[in-house]
Amino acid sequence: MRVLVTGATGYVGGRLVPRLLERGHQVRVLVRDEARLQGRPWVGQVEVVRGSLEDPQSLKRALFGVEAAYYLVHAMLSEKDFQEAERRQAETFAQVAREVGLDHVVYLGGLLPKEGGSSPHLRSRARVGEVLRALLPATEFRAGPIVGSGSASFEMVRYLTERLPVMVAPRWILNPVSPVAIRDVLAYLLLALERGPSGVVEIGAEPLTFKAMMETYAEVRGLKRVILPLPVLAPRLAALWVGLVTPIPNRLALPLVEGILHPLVADTRRAKALFPQVEPIPYRKAVELALERIALGEVETRWSGALHGEGYRLEDREGLIREVRTLRAKAPPEALFQAFTSLGGERGWLVWGWAWALRGLLDRMVGGPGLRRGRRHPTELLPGEAVDFWRVEAVEPGRLLRLRAEMRLPGRAWLEWRALPEGEGSLLVQTAYFEPKGLSGLLYWWLLYPLHRPIFSDLARAIVREAEAAQAKAPWSGGGAG
């Protein structure tokens, strides 16, 4: 079949694409930024459409001629009002898909509690399923915690169990849940193409409590752990604790925690009847397989791999620290590009002028270039040119600028901006990279982090403001410096 995959840079989508190709399907992917696909071994075998779920025109291009589509996206980390964003995206997708005559949409949602109220995240996932099923022939898989190398649920269990010999936890960790291995999720998704629209299908392995999930992980790792359930512990407090102990940010930890406030047990009778080929593997085996993949360095995708919407995240992996800020702008990508490619020189850096001046002075005192080099042209940049104490490493007109630091540092640093189309506006993705050299590099980063964080946050906001102000004065007509 010719198949569209949305969410191809995400945890599940990034694993599904190569398996679809292995089975002979023609795959098309919809992405906001093609650069996010770089390095994936399958990128040369797929058709790439640049766009978003809120842009009907790009959706029409993506859906034209396909027989089935996978809907594997969510907005949980995109906006504060993620429920509204998910509803809006699902409605736009479903309406466009219906117009072009899509035969089948396959959606991966979440299990809902049989008793008690569900979390905002789970309610939103269910609402997306309702929207898709109302307008399209659909298969909606509902899954509990997905267990696999790099999955958010697995990483939460892993870090909590590894780092805490004694753990006090809320009493709702005694609620049963139905985890499901990532390989089983992929098997169901692939078989759905052969089966055709099947409605709602709950999937999962034998249920066990979240406490038992951590205890099983400890047994597999040969760890002795004591877990003490408490009568009460607020979900937000528990999420803050997860965010502190694990790499998972609080905005993701909260819906993960809220998802187990009530029992989440799958009724797998329809799954067994429709897909008898899949025999879900037990949780313990899923943990063993995940740990094996991690030990071999064969983690295909990770929960943090997808391009999230508006927000902030800090990552420290593979020896490289990444500080990513994403902001929406009511201006086209070209206006953002013009704003960030005009930084430096006589114009300066928009915010915290005294801090940039002090950093330049300190750099000159230790033999670095400081800020005295300025820039050749007030708005135009070419690869290899100097901008104050930076060097232009890459520039792509209308969309990207990457600067490499040439100031004296205990390591290497880069500052990058991407301007991505998003509906009628755009997204600014600003990333600061630092590759520390030894202990001195780590100390340098963390000692200056309390100052760097507000400076770079204010810089991103100032770029957006400038782009929007330029757009308000004169509607953008295209082009851009390069």
TrEMBL record:
Occurrences of domain NmrA-like (ranges): 2-134
PANTHER family for this protein: NADH DEHYDROGENASE [UBIQUINONE] 1 ALPHA SUBCOMPLEX SUBUNIT 9, MITOCHONDRIAL (PTHR12126:SF11), NADH-UBIQUINONE OXIDOREDUCTASE 39 KDA SUBUNIT-RELATED (PTHR12126)
InterPro entries in UniProt: ComplexI_NDUFA9_subunit (IPR051207), DUF2867 (IPR021295), NAD(P)-bd_dom_sf (IPR036291), NmrA-like (IPR008030)
GO molecular function: protein-containing complex binding
UniProt-recorded name of the protein: Putative nucleoside-diphosphate sugar epimerase
